[in-house]
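re the bet — no i am not wrong, look at it urself. input seq straight from the record:
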Amino acid sequence: MALTGIQIFKMLPKTNCKECGHPTCLAFAMALASGKAELASCPDVSDEAKEQLAEASAPPVRPMQIGAGDRSFKIGGETVLFRHEKTFLGSPGLGVLVSTDTDEGTLTEKLKVWDTFQFERVGFNLRPELVAIKDVNGDAGKFAALAKKVIDESNFCLVLMSEDVGVMKAGIDSCADRKPVIYAATKDNVDDMGALAKEKGLPLAIKADDMDGLMDLTGKLTGMGLKDLILDSNSRTVRRAFEDQIWLRREAIMKKNRALGFPTITFPCEMADNLDKETVIASMFIAKYAGIIILSDFIGESLFPLLVERLNIYTDPQRPMTVEQGIYEINGPDENSPVCITTNFALTYFIVSAEIDASRVPSWLLIMDTEGLSVMTAWAAGKFVGDAVGIFVNKSGIFDKVKHKKLIIPGYAAAISGDLEEEVKDSEILIGPRDASQITKFLKEFGV
């Protein structure tokens, strides 16, 4: 955020009322500065201070919601240049380009295929979000028909691409409920496109040949009351587009240039002659620093690595990925089924549960909250030790579901077995394998 915690604290009422959920106004200011609290939580802040704080503490890159429905997503909101400094927030949306010379039957088939590209990974559903409809012949009817087909036959969000205001109006009218992105305002149509975006309440992409041109357009549009803008530097060579992305982010974050503090849109589909090259270019823009990325097609072998890259880069490095503590049923367990115990680190859970599922042995899996630490790390930190695990097991309710007290713990936590046996009376602690890949064999051979 633009202000430090101390600067924010000076504008707060300093009553220490605790109604914001923090013990002091200073603690609240520090949380606000780190993005872990909302200004609205303070009941006593003055209207004047609220206005100053809202403006001064706004992220350098404006956050905005793209689309509507279950594929809607947020872009922008960035406060740093490098992920290790804090975290990246608004992960880029991935879209595919469809032109108005595309046959409707062909689009129907493509939508069916594109909708199948959904991949489960560590509890996340990875999938693309957008279809971009590009006007290539000025046919408003065709433009509107394709946009309507997308919203009728899929849940994809939309980017509507035309510089003709009449064509754009027709497209918006056919899919307004999906909150499409309007692309694009230029120096020649900025007044009309700006008025249309304001009337419909939609995000507006702007395009110019240089940075001065972009700033002129953002200045004009923000003066009209528009806030949700998306920048296209109109560079269609890889090197220039890459340089532009970095320059725009630096201007926004390091120089606090509000005129360029908006997310960007990029078009790898216009920078390469095949999808393999587009995929490499798109991977670059995921890291540096696109808000929306448009490809010429979606196929599994190019899309999946982009989705995984996006997940890895935009996962908060300061916040472990976790699953909820509790009892998980795998393969339909009964009162005689084995009971396995592990931590709530998401990757640990998904690996272990997958191996148990593959064994086809009906099992209970107890997931203990260790603040997202893996087994070894949690044990070393004193969070996965015998007495703590024992207290968790006793309170979990697992003994209402099984008639035995055989508990399987990870091989790396073998040292806790003695304390665990003392804590869970009449229990028998079984040491499971160290490597999760051996779980299937262990469950099948051990005869629990």
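see?? The chain has a mean pLDDT of 93. told u. also Residues 20 and 42 are 5 Å apart (CA to CA). so pay up
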